[in-house]
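Predict the assembly for these two chains.
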Amino acid sequence: MAVRREKAERLADEELMPLVGRKDPEAFAVLYDRHGGAAYSLAYRIVGDRAAAEEVTQEAFISVWRSGARFDAARGSVRSWLLSVVRNRAIDFLRSRAGKAPKLSFDDDAVLEQRPAEERTDEEALRRETAAELRGAIGKLPGEQSKVIELAYFGGFSHSEISRMLNLPMGTVKGRMRLGLEKIRGELAEGLA
Amino acid sequence: MNVSDHDSRSEDLAAYVLGALDGDEVAAFERHLEGCERCQEEMRWLEPAVATLPETIERLEAPPQLRETLMAEVLEDVREAEGRPARRRSWRQWVLKPAMGLAVVALLVAGVVGYEVGKDDSGGEGGAPSTIERQVGSLTVKMVSEGDGGTLHLSGVDQLPPDKVLEAWVEREGKVEAVPALFVPDREGQAETRITDMNGVATVMVTEEPRGGSDQPTGEPIMTMSVPQ
């Protein structure tokens, strides 16, 4: 039997997932309402097209709905898992469109002009604040490090592809990835998040 | 797991958590990871850094129709799981495409209403031509069926920009197919295309598309018409 909307809203994401696994539409709706905006934003950032971003987000959430049991709490939060599903779908979409160039800049001019999502909860407001700080942290990375991380994460390029694109040895590319991630992780460890 | 093996593989770790290893490298690294506690530990350390990346982009508001489409799909799954007949609307994917929206719903309704009030000349038997004529908004739509195919005539069509054409679409057994013959209106606003196979077609729709046509509708339909079976 499906839980009532009010009850579902009081549950943590990790508590919603078993309900989604049992095909509870209210639990799924709450999950979407919490993370749909972030998922759509990520999809748009990667594919650079609103219609495609909508398609990617829909496919990702439907796959979550139909295989909710795949979530492994030991590997991280529901939100991270959901966004990784969206990211994978978006990268697949890009790869299926040969010649489609991903958006490749941390300067989000294109998305900044869009209307921001409504801040519905304190948690969301905090997340925005944290995101702004994280952007600052990433902005402080040397360009050579942020570039390889961005090409990999948002562009879906492998280290060997990036190596060819930037005309760098593969070891250098992997080293810059490592250094950049360690710096971001260091910022997190210092209590940024 | 010896130290040198770890050292030789650990440089792949960041690329792995970023999803940037090549296909064959992924399997090799995962085999290493399985037996290397240091790499497992380092991966647990680095993963949150990757998880923050999507949080650093500016947030957009997801289009409302995305939620509607998604929940419609979810509720149909529930209906099917409960053994109730599905009510999947084959045009939903079109109707709720971002480039479309409520205006399309209105046009769909208009199309159905048009059928109710339109002229339906069933013609003779044995494959003799039959004509359906309807008023859909400002357009007069005439579908002449003959044999397996038919000709779609539109009157009152606005002139198109030079980089646009008209493309017709048919819905058949729940699937949407493009009609190959692209067309444009003449100076009098008359436009016509041939649909070679009308068998099983439930609905016909026309959209404006870029020159060369599209694989799927990208704009609001200028007309939608149901076809009696």
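The helical segments of chain B are 3-10, 13-17, 23-35, 37-52, 64-81, 92-95, 102-117. Chain B touches chain A through 46 residues (CB under 8 Å).
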